[in-house]
Amino acid sequence: MSSYQGLNSDDTASSTAATASSIMGLMNSAKEKWNASGANEAVGRVSAKIPESTKNYVGTLFSREQLRSVTVYFGIGEERPFYVEKTPSLLVERLRHNFTFFYLNYMLLTAVFFCLTLFISPTAIIGMAILAAGWMWVIKMSSSGSLNLAGIKIPQKTATILMTVISVFSLIYLLSNVFWYTLFWSGLFACIHAFLRDASLHKDMGDQVAMEGDLALGSSEDTSFLNDEV
């Protein structure tokens, strides 16, 4: 009995190792096909055409500094971090400031809701797994440069385009409910936070200037009053 269990565990380990090796081989093959297709050069050319100012703006927009900490987001330690503002003009200003100040937190909240909704949607998970398996099959079967389907040879580029189109429509179908649930709940929570959160204490965070160095005055006459006795 023990020898049978040992053989069974060895077979399982061998099967797992073979599966991992197959996946790594497919990933390496996909990487080689990507490099051979000239996609890196195409991406580089597109990136080179983007103005440097646009790159800097996008980089600043999604920089780590724009993500507010949990303490700032919830106003921990503040006297009144949340309350209902009844003055319309002040409420509009609060909403404007909160949406521009916490926008990256709201985007992160949307991503979290998307992942949570996806995990509780077995249909979407199964569909995405089938899509992943389909991509692995296409990559493997077209490794020679063409895909032989029912006696018809399809060029690898054409097969990739067809698979991309199928994937897009499949994801739209599979993730439509996930998308709307995510958009609704994340938008609701973001609006409630922006409506109630008083972050006026943080309005000037971007205007802070670091003071460094020693104080230097122009001449001894300017500092003579420091030595005068009262």
TrEMBL record:
<dbReference type="GO" id="GO:0016020">
    <property type="term" value="C:membrane"/>
</dbReference>
<keyword id="KW-0812">Transmembrane</keyword>
<feature type="transmembrane region" description="Helical">
    <location>
        <begin position="101"/>
        <end position="119"/>
    </location>
</feature>
<dbReference type="GO" id="GO:0005794">
    <property type="term" value="C:Golgi apparatus"/>
</dbReference>
<comment type="similarity">
    <text>Belongs to the PRA1 family.</text>
</comment>
<dbReference type="Pfam" id="PF03208">
    <property type="entry name" value="PRA1"/>
</dbReference>
<keyword id="KW-1133">Transmembrane helix</keyword>
<protein>
    <recommendedName>
        <fullName>PRA1 family protein</fullName>
    </recommendedName>
</protein>
<keyword id="KW-0472">Membrane</keyword>
<dbReference type="InterPro" id="IPR004895">
    <property type="entry name" value="Prenylated_rab_accept_PRA1"/>
</dbReference>
<feature type="transmembrane region" description="Helical">
    <location>
        <begin position="154"/>
        <end position="172"/>
    </location>
</feature>
